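Worked example
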Amino acid sequence: MPTLNVVVCNTMVGAYTQAGHIEEAHIIFQRMPMVDVVTFNSILAGVVKGGTLDEALTFFSRSPEHDVVSWNSILHAYAQSGHLEEATAIFCLMPEWSCVSWNALLAAVCDFGSIDHAREVFSQMPQRNSVAWNTMIAAVGQKGEDLGQAKHLFDTMPGDRSLVTWAGLIGAFCSNSGPDDAKTALQLAPCWSSSVVSLIAVACVQDGRLHEARRWFEILPERDTLAWKMPMRDSMPWNAMVTAYAQTGHFLRAKETFDGIPHKCLVSWAAMLGGYAQSGRAEEGITLWRRLGQEGIAPNEIAFTSALALCGGAGMIEEAARVFQSMAADHGVRPSREHYSAMVDALARAGHLEEAEELLASMPFPVNPVTTTSILSACNWHRDWTRGERAARGLLEIDSSHSGHYISLARLVL
């Protein structure tokens, strides 16, 4: 093969990674006689977008040098994987911060931290662009905070308000005051999109107004034709409706909507798996999980959480263990706190209390009360008083101010 020019190859690698063709980009990367930080950054960005955290860390460590783009990519990798503590540590290690760095940290805190922590990060930002404002408005609304805070952010935001900004405000209305106020805000928006209208439809489902939700859902193709012609985008409102129906107990409607999705994406499958898990339909859910593998779709963190919950609910411990072990081994997905908690709960429910306790002790995360409580409840059910007392005392060590933990301990020792 003739010698490849580094600049030309970097352009090709960047084009392939932006299009999601990581394997093709990697082939060019391997054939390049010389690579530079731009090459590594292009590959790293693609891996972060479509690969796994471990792959991203591998490329980051192999890079001959790291600039702000490299650091931003690895920060994104930790953030989107839900590893907030690690993402914060990476941010602190960075030699310099750009707007992209601050926005990535803010998004991670909004998704996986508290709203107070998000406000702290937002207030410390030296510059706030529209991405930061939109992230904060959406976070305040989604976390059920005072609607006035979202409106204040919206009103004080400098510059023009994009459709994303309006979606954040409308989402805040949906979460805090219901669909009617959200519809009023929608009428003030300069234009509509499938994502915004689906927020109204979901709010109607959550308010028990199923017929109205269906009407909003059915006008989506007329309001946003372009979005509905895009396979990855047109599944988004369907996914939202599947989730909304499942969360409000309308499982048959959720399944009907899932079956009607013209282009199912991973989020579609994860939403339906979550519906099965929430409704306690374990066997049907496990069947769908196996179909996911047969379709050749790589599951994400949310899908794994639902699969573990389904296995636990059905008492399928061996299946749960296979799912848990396959995360890192077969899919490169590092188990999160939620995955460990789901596996601990599955073991505890089935009476494998020793294994549950051992897995809890081996968690690479601080122990949270929810996971310990699942062991305590199982100990009560299976009448393992010694292990239950250890779990109760562990709860007191986590939070000694919670009166319920003392009651749990008293029930065991009295």
In short: The chain has a mean pLDDT of 80. The radius of gyration is 24 Å.
